[in-house]
Amino acid sequence: MIRHLLKLVWNRKRANALIVAEIFVSFLVVFAVLTGAVAVAGGWGKPIGFQWQNVWDVSMDFDIDGGQKASPELHASVMRMLDEVRALPQVAAASVSNTPPYAFSTTEGRRNINGKDVTVIIDDVTSGFADTMQMKVVRGRWFNEDDEISQHWPVVVDTNFVKEVYGNADPIGQKFEEDENLFHQIVGVVEPYRKDGETSAPMNMMFRHVANNGKHGRLGSHILLRMQPGTSPQFEVELASRLRQVAPEVSFDVRQMERMRTNMLRTRLAPLVAGGIVGLFLIGMVSLGLTGVLWQNVTRRTREIGLRRAMGASGTRVHRQILAEVAVLATIAVVIGSIIVWQLPVLGAFSFVSPSAFTLGFAGALATIYGLTLLCGLYPSWLASRLQPADALRYE
User: Fold this and answer.
1) What would the pLDDT profile of 167-183 be if each residue is shown by its tens digit?
2) In this structure, is the dihedral angle defined by the CA atoms of residues 363, 369, 372 and 378, taken in order, positive or negative?
3) Of 129, 242, 267, 369, which sees the most CB atoms within 10 A?
4) How many other C-beta atoms lie within 10 A of the C-beta of residue 282?
């Protein structure tokens, strides 16, 4: 039966090529949209490792070329600003960060640690960062005054980092090389940290300590403030005025992290929403086109179908034959699409989604395409099952 169906499809290869192409494109679009949606939905309810509510971001405008350390004068100026805002009654905690959450900036690097080549997301922060972002330390400790005079460069990592690099071993006290004659030493472990919030994938996070005296660490360009609940947005004006008095040479912008989060979500979800809209229109057009092409094919095959009916084939068997031909066309398109889709992980595409989200997106695309094509074939196959042998004699 399958051999006979393949022969029928091949004999009308020109007409069927268009159908296969439409199903193929639809499969790729549906796969991309469903995979992105599954990835976002799967990560939405998971902890992000920090609390963004009531946090304000003071973004300072200065550039440090090549990631080098800030000058002593600039470092001292930023530390004075940090001390000034900590003294305000409206501020519960404050710290400096280089790449804070929702800031559209990331420091990423490859490191060979414990014999493993891993990708690490890095943020340089001062000792108050954990209190400001209300992070939970699960092993060891957060940075403290002892780290100001530490021989090595203290770091805190998250549990994702520990799992990939050290497995079940205790990471506290472990050292690894950053540069020549410069070593990091792990002093604490925090819960999984996703710096871009709900839409970001799991990452190997490492926080490097920025010493108040400038001994180690690279000064960040953001001061994060955890405000007291109920602080009025109008306080931004007073805060900006105080900071200008302390450091008139530094320009800055004050933003609430709630607004930063909203901008991040809009930016990350916009391609997914746009792809969903395009996918719906494409599926609608393909459905109408596929139904029309199948209808036309059935009409052109009136003599063939009438001959089958005259030879004893029932309407049900004709109905099943047309649906089976549609399924064969869908299978050809899906096989070609699957070959392309399963090359994406090898090429590094879709690296932001987990293997489970990738698999679910692929399975959802298969179900959608087969369901769509069989649904489009129902009416034409029903028409074919209604044909009688006499209809073939009247056909011109």
Assistant:
1) 989 999 999 987 777 88
2) negative
3) 129
4) 18
